Every structure is written in C-alpha cells, then in structure tokens.
Amino acid sequence: MHRRLFIAAALALLAPGALAQGGADVQRISTYLNALTTLTGSFVQTNPDGSISEGRFYIRKPGLMRFEYEPPNPALVISDGVWVAVIDRRSNTPAQRYPLSDTPLDLLLRDRVDLAREGAIRKVEKGNGQLRVTAVDPDAPQRGSLTLIFSDRPLELRQWIVVDDRGQVTTVLLSDMKRDVTLDRSLFSIESAELDRR
C-alpha cells in the first residue's frame, strides 16, 4: 500500500497547470525547480491509515531520483532517467517499472520546468509564510489531487499532500534538505538496487 501511495504521489506531483491569479507565484516555483540540480534530505510520510514511514531521498537532474524507506517498510523507489521502479527489498520479485516519460515525474526531473505552460494547477494560496499550490491531472481529474507546500521566503519545497481517487490522504514532509551535493550515478541504478537485496 505504501508503494502504491508513493506512485500516486509521484504521478499527482506533476499534474501541470496554472491559475492566472497565481501566475507570478507559479513562475517563482518553476524558477526554483529549474535552479535545482541535486537535492537530498529526509522525509516522513503519514499514510491514510495513520501509520508513519520515514526515509531519505536523493534527486539529481535530469531524470534521476531515489526514495529509500527505512525498515520495516521495504520499499525503494528509483528513477534511472528512463524508468521509475518500485522495488521490494524483502522480495526477489522483479521491480515494478513505469516509463518515466509516462509519469509527471518527468516534468519535475527535466532540466526545464514551466508549470504555467503545462496546464493544471487549480489553486494557489499564500499565508502564514507558506505558498500552497493544488494540482490535478487535467486528463484524469478523478485520480485525485496534490497540494505542494513551500516556505514562501525563501521559497523551498517542504511538504506535499496527496488525495487519491478514493479520497484517502497521504502527507509527505521533507526536512534536512541539502542542495548542490555530489551524487554518484550508481545511486540511481535499478539493476544494482535489485542485486543489492539478494
């Protein structure tokens, strides 16, 4: 279930678009995302049943991402620039793979991001030092929504909230983030991750 929710979050995360009234803030977010080259940090995920999962994440643009869940959650999620794979580290079953180009992660992980041009942000809210952007997939709004929460000044992604197609809510809180760190390409190898669990 946790792996399914992560993929739902990933797919919702980049549902594109913009409202005219939030255009300047949407442009700020695009500029912020474009300035990221590498990013690491910790995350705490609150699942719909109230359970908590924690772990570390690594992003290296273009195309590379890794989310490592701490035990007892066995999940590992990797994008190698072509595929997004969900690996169960307690099992020898093959990774579940999704083409990166078919997921909204492709938008987040590409060199150039332009959320205003892409087309599906439904709400932009400011207040209490935060900037909140709610998005849906314009081709499949029934899949749910994602709210990205940024600190406003300085602008920094801090949290996202996913509401899935059944109305279940998953929250991911980011912390301890470091930008412009050196990340080896091997960290994003799906094949190596599959071999490491055996």
Morphology: globular
Specify the CATH homologous superfamily: Lipoprotein localisation LolA/LolB/LppX
SSE string, helix = H, strand = E? HHEEEEEEHHEEEEEH
Average pLDDT works out at: 81
CATH class: Mainly Beta
CATH topology: outer membrane lipoprotein receptor (LolB), chain A
Number of helices: 5
Describe the strand arrangement of the main beta sheet, using strand numbers: 6-5-4-3-2-1-11-10-9-8-7
Query: What amount of the residues lies in strands?
Result: 35-45%
Secondary-structure-based class equals: alpha+beta
CATH architecture: Clam
For the record, give the distance between the C-alpha atoms at the N and C termini, rounded to a whole number: 23 Å
Radius of gyration: 16 Å
Number of strands: 11
Number of domains: 1
> Spans with pLDDT under 50 lasting ≥5 residues?
11-21
Share of helix, binned:
10-25%
The biggest beta sheet reads: 11 strands, antiparallel
